[in-house]
Specification:
Distance between the termini: 30 Å
Strand order of the largest sheet: 1-4
Number of strands: 4
Number of helices: 11
Helix content: 55-70%
Order of helices and strands: HHHHHHHHEHHEHEE
Radius of gyration: 18 Å
Largest sheet: 2 strands, parallel
Strand content: 5-15%
Structural class: mainly alpha
Length: 202
């Protein structure tokens, strides 16, 4: 666990453009058709590196490179934004995410956001803000800490389920304080799973 946390902390240094190129070369040797038109025709190496690092930072395995590259090839012509591409790739990898987090359970026990707080955050981002005001951010951190403690007491995964539009921002914001927290979007949940809100932030 300690080694894993160190790798995640220094992923920017450990997984750069050179490592991305080496990984791409290995994929190219096995399934060349997937890679031959991707770089630089669809996206450049820097964007691919950023997408892979975003996945690694949120503890998403990148072993299924076929799915990752096929998804980027499909959507990379319409967007070059690595964060938007990451969100699209995460949906394509939803089965892997579910297996990693809830492989033995048909009931997904998650932390949720109170509807009033979710609406407040959504309105905040609709106005073009990329940050939230200090009083609200302090409250959010305090309430998230309490929810995580309560989640651990019932031996449930430390997973927060939020609106897809909020997922990336809240993950980036909250994981700075709570690196063990996994933030999911409903679009990333697949299979016959029952969702149970065991704790609510509000």
């Amino acid at each position: 666990t300690h080694l894993n946390s160190l790798i995640l902390r220094y992923v920017d240094e450990l997984f750069g453009r050179q490592e991305t190129q080496q990984l791409l070369d290995r994929v190219n040797a096995e399934i060349p058709k997937i890679t031959e038109d991707l770089i630089p025709n669809v996206i450049n190496l820097t964007v691919l590196n950023k997408v892979l690092k975003n996945l690694l930072l949120e503890q998403i395995p990148i072993r299924d490179m076929r799915t990752i590259l096929e998804t980027i090839s499909e959507h990379g012509l319409t967007t070059k934004d690595p964060y938007e591409l990451t969100s699209i790739v995460r949906i394509s990898l939803s089965k892997i995410i579910m297996q990693k987090l809830f492989s033995k359970s048909t009931v997904i026990e998650v932390i949720g956001l109170k509807s009033t707080l979710e609406e407040l955050l959504l309105n905040n981002f609709k106005e073009g803000n990329s940050t939230i005001e200090p009083g609200l951010s302090e409250m959010l951190i305090k309430k998230t800490k309490a929810a995580i403690i309560a989640q651990k007491l019932i031996d449930s995964p430390v997973v927060l389920l939020v609106n897809h539009s909020l997922r990336f921002f809240l993950s980036k914001f909250l994981r700075q304080v709570f690196p063990e927290l996994i933030v999911l979007s409903p679009l990333e949940i697949t299979g016959m799973k029952t969702i149970k809100m065991t704790n609510v932030i509000g």
